[in-house]
Amino acid sequence: MNNKTPPLSAPPTMAAPGERSDPPPAEAALREAVGRMARASLMVAGDTLLDRTMLGTVRRISPEAPVPLLDIRRESAAPAGAGGVARHLSALGAAAALVAPVGEDAAGRELTAQVGALPGIEPWLLADSERRTVEKIRFIADVGPYGTPLLRADRNEARPLAGHEAARLVRIAIEAMAAASVVVLADHRRGTLAGNVAPRLIAAARARQRPVVADLRGHDYARFAGADVVLTTRRQIAHTLPAPAAAIDTPIDEPTYAATAETLRRTHNFGAVLVTDSEAGITLVRAGGWQHYPVDAPEAPEITGAADAVTAVLAAALAVGVDLPGATRLANIAAGIMLRRSADSVVRGADLVAALSPQAHARRKVVAAASLAERGERWHRQGLRLGLALGCFDPLQPAERTLLAHARAGCDRLAVLVFDDATARRRLGPEHPVEPEAVRAERVAELDAVGRVVIAASQDVPAILALLRPALLAGLTPDHDADLLHGFSGELLAAES
User: Does the pLDDT of residue 15 top 80, yes or no?
Assistant: First the structure.
């Protein structure tokens, strides 16, 4: 394992605190960095869980109670938590030492065997006869692309480690740091990193100049003071907001999340805070400002398993010298991949490289009108300001790129309606379209400013406006498009005539 420790690079020019900015495109450099992840070396410590899935078919209601009767067809299990991070690191080709306690029970033996079979992973699973191995058991009906969850049952263990077990874990983890470039701490509130375990590991890592990435599933940020990067969630951040803003169902905008994360960052001397959300993406907060990275998620995401992939890819990227914005972008891509897969899947380097292709990314942005409406509802629920730009984009001109950039600056999420071929001929003349509607839509979707693209006829515009309810509309002019603008009362960013 390589023990060279790359420093976390200084932040580039960012938006002022409280402002939103988009990540710069750097596909070629990131693709090259993905290849280097196979040379990464890390130490992972924390709560390791066994994530078990029972997949089956529901054909009737149980005669014993008004609940579905699941006929189990397939059972699978995979390490999660710190073990899930190690599983994704193994899939990336990286090397890692995994230090975690397990119970002396059947689940512990199964978990130990699974971790031991992971290529590149050095398991230090400390058997504890007083401890139960944590299991998450999901019962899934085979309906829909990822199945339909029916029930989750947990076998939990949340007690802090006994004094001698904690000392043993700390000693082994510190020894493993010698061969690691980055230290990962995964806290799932199951007791492994309770008490002074996390502070001791962070102090040891800092003394050895090893960056620390901490994935927290609770609100005890103080225990991880001094960590270089802390991953938390919007739900966890919401608990730190003053009432009544802390209500989970209250829409909270990105600046509020960023400002709260910045307060946490300063209070606990974190280098940076990453606020994650399965549908909204990742917000990176660090000294000098913040950036939001929208995730390329499907309409019905499979949220289980994405967090471990985010932590693994972020840490592996930092271990091979990728700067924090680049590592965050790769982690966000990994989240988008896992949102389309089952929880026991992994993210591989080839997946990241393929997702970094502008063409592949753009094609996923082009959606049907119904899907755009669903996405718009999610954006509204998140308290985001929506914008909609319309045009033929035949071909995409510099002035249209500028218009889209201005529209994106005036909203949190920008959708684009590309007029279909018949509408393009009516608006531009019989010699148009020069490019087919699918090509025009894909070219627009390649732009970072654009969140979703829909192909539609002019007569569909009023219905799409009613469904999407944008606060900003770009690309139309009152003189030529009065019929399409009828009933719209938001901000109008007119196209140049």
Answer: no
- How many other C-beta atoms can be found within 10 angstroms of the C-beta atom of residue 93? 18
User: Are 322 and 330 a contacting pair, CB within 8 Å?
Assistant: yes
Residues 290 and 262 sit within 8 Å (Cβ to Cβ)? yes
Reported as a single tens digit per residue, the pLDDT across 377-390 is 878 877 889 999 99
65 by Cβ neighbours in 10 Å (0-12 / 13-18 / 19+) ranks as exposed
DSSP string, 352-378: HHHHT-HHHHHHHHB--HHHHHHHHHH
Could you tell me the pLDDT band of residue 177, with boundaries at 50, 70 and 90? very high
Distance CA 53, CA 78 (A): 9
Give the Cα separation of 183 and 165 in Å (integer).
20
Mean pLDDT for the chain? 86
Report which of 85, 114, 81 is spatially closest to residue 192, judged by C-alpha positions: 81
Of 25, 94, 90, give the one whose Cα is nearest residue 326.
25
Cα–Cα distance for residue pair 441/451, rounded to 1 Å: 12
CA 340 to chain centre: 12
Place of tokens 């471990």: 308
> What residues contact residue 182 under an 8 Å CB cut-off, 6+ apart?
5, 40, 42, 43, 210, 211, 212, 213, 315, 316, 318, 319
**Dihedral sign computed on CA atoms, order 167, 168, 172, 175:** positive
Burial 289-301 (b: 16+ CB within 10 A, else e): bbbbbbbbbbeeb
Between CA 214 and CA 51 the distance in angstroms is 21
Cα–Cα distance measured from residue 370 to residue 379, given in angstroms and rounded to the nearest whole number: 14
Active site residue 249: no
Burial of 346 (0-12, 13-18, 19+ CB in 10 A): buried
Are 245 and 256 in contact by the 8 Å Cβ rule? The answer is: yes
For the question of whether the overall pTM of this predicted structure is more than 0.90, the answer is no
Which of 215, 228, 308, 351 is labelled catalytic? 308
- CB-count burial class (<10 Å; 0-12, 13-18, 19+) for 390: buried
**Rounded to an integer, what distance in angstroms lies between the CA atom of residue 99 and that of residue 82?**
8
Q: Looking at this protein, which amino acid is placed at residue 237?
A: I
The whole-number pLDDT of residue 244 equals 46
In sequence order, the 6+-apart residues with CB closer than 8 A to the CB of 117 are none
Residues constituting the chain: 497
DSSP states of 287-344: TTEEEEE-----SS---TTHHHHHHHHHHHHHHTT--HHHHHHHHHHHHHHHTTS-TT
Could you tell me which residues come within 8 angstroms of residue 56 by beta carbon, excluding any fewer than 6 positions away? 70, 71, 72, 73, 74, 139, 140, 141, 142
